[in-house]
Amino acid sequence: MNRLFVLFVLCFVMIFSTSCEKREDNTVRNNLLTFLATCTGGSLEACNAGCAGKYPDVTGDNYPAASACFTACSTNCNLSTTLLLLSNK
Hints:
Layout: H1 2-18, H2 27-38, H3 44-54, H4 63-76, H5 80-87
């Protein structure tokens, strides 16, 4: 009975391990699309300047919005991730 169980498990593993489809890696494409769509001004400096123009005086009332704007610039305009992805290809 034990041999039958082991044989069944091995067959199960063989069938399901060979039936997987290869996944296409879209990481670089998604990263570039995020940069193009969300990096206002096309560079980190331009995006930060846009945020500084939108929020010239950061006070307690507009601090969350200004912080979110500058954080979005830092995240979305970061090309070092894209360069690392491209260098690993």
